[in-house]
Amino acid sequence: MQAILVTGGTGTLGRAVVRCLVEGEGAAVAAEVGAGGAAGVAGAGAGAGAGVEGATGVAEAGADAEGAAVAAEAADAGVEVDGEREIRVLSRRPLPSGVSASRLGSGTSGTSGAPDPSAGRPSGANEPPVGLPGTPYRHLVGDLLNGDGVDAAVRGVRAIVHCASMNGKDDVLATRNLIDAVRRSGGRPHLVYISIVGIDAIPLPYYRAKLAAERLVMESGLPWSILRATQFHDLLATVFAYQRWLPVTLAVKGFRFQPVDVRDVAARLAGLALGEPAGKVPDMGGPQVRDIRDLAATYDRAYGRRRRVVCLRVPGGIARGFASGANLVPDHRVGTTTFDDFVARERERERGNRQGKGKAAGRVRGVRGPGAEK
Ligand SMILES: NC(=O)c1ccc[n+]([C@@H]2O[C@H](COP(=O)([O-])OP(=O)(O)OC[C@H]3O[C@@H](n4cnc5c(N)ncnc54)[C@H](OP(=O)(O)O)[C@@H]3O)[C@@H](O)[C@H]2O)c1
């Protein structure tokens, strides 16, 4: 049995990657994203271990044909080796019992909270199996910081998409523990790591940790690919959403972002995982570079908030790094979904959820609740 492991497969990005791999959702997106999806394949033969940075840039050529190849592979909905295929997910928290892989993509996970007594063992050991019937999907509960369950998770895998993050310096320890577990397993899986654009120019402590984790991946002696992406739409939306209780929306003067849709990034990572090690692949950004003031105003408008966006000047190296545009990759506008598209999609999803809840409440009470109108 060989498999692909997605660490942090219950997080924003990890969920989307799992969805691409389990449901073949990457097929359409990988084809759309083209150059991105092709990256892993284009770098074929780049070799293992450190020193394959030369692979950067080769992905752009022949993107359509190779994107289609990735799409065809992803359409196969997973990995099939010796007649058996499996996508594994590792995270600290278990999914709620009976959650399907399809719902995994819509924010279900990470809410169950309580630690699982079966830590380190397949969640199926004492609760209903996760995943759609017949899909090769397995959720493992473990912890990359203390190593619980990691040996079992990496056993026999042919690729690992490392999306787990503690959003701080612990990312280095987690990455080291992951690599050590792989070494103990005796395997040589393709390690695919997601990083962030501009981490070498912006002195945020988290970015330093990402840089150190990248180095561990490159020096691991394993075959590897590293993709740096710009901020996800979700992240900016969260920053604006947190400010809903303030009378104005605060932003930092001079900051620009090139937010990218997490699904586009996931499709590219899935393509990488299904392909050969490619080293450092071209950075990936969203379709538009926009001033933060403008992004904040878009968000506020979409949510019906009528208020001012107040831009503050912030001193220091971190602010200078962002103001210099080190977080942008205008020559790599790979993503296809704009921030406006994303916000509209989220609004639609939230309305759908509310209506769904209303209908359910109506059914329970045996009356037509306000949400059960349609
Ligand atoms: N967000 C962005 O804008 C952005 C942009 C570019 C790159 N990235 C990179 O993309 C990656 C994923 O980001 P994200 O926004 O999807 O993160 P996220 O939503 O915070 O998800 C983090 C995941 O890591 C898991 N995790 C945390 N601690 C763990 C541990 N000790 N052991 C095992 N799993 C653990 C979490 O699950 P549990 O809590 O259940 O364990 C969760 O599944 C990160 O490496 C980030 O640097 C993010």
3D architecture notes:
The chain has 374 residues and is an alpha/beta fold. Helix content is 39%, strand content 13%. It contains 13 helices and eleven strands. Strands 3-2-1-4-5-6-9 form a seven-stranded parallel sheet, with helices on both faces. Helix 2 packs across helix 3 and helix 7 (170-185) runs parallel beside helix 8. The radius of gyration is 21 Å and the shape is globular. The termini are far apart. Mean pLDDT is 75; it is low at 26-83, 101-135 and 364-374.
Helix content: 25-40%
* Biggest sheet layout: 7 strands, parallel
The total count of strands amounts to 11
Q: Please identify the structural class as seen in this structure.
A: alpha/beta
Number of helical segments with 4 or more residues? 13
Give the helix/strand layout:
Layout: E1 3-7, H1 12-23, H2 26-33, H3 35-42, H4 63-75, E2 87-91, H5 101-104, E3 137-141, H6 150-154, E4 157-162, H7 170-185, E5 190-196, H8 205-218, E6 224-229, H9 233-241, E7 249-252, E8 256-257, H10 262-274, E9 279-280, E10 290-291, H11 292-302, E11 309-312, H12 317-323, H13 339-365
Parallel strand pairs: 1-2, 1-4, 2-3, 4-5, 5-6, 6-9, 7-11
Antiparallel strand pairs: 8-10
Bound molecules: NADP nicotinamide-adenine-dinucleotide phosphate (NAP).
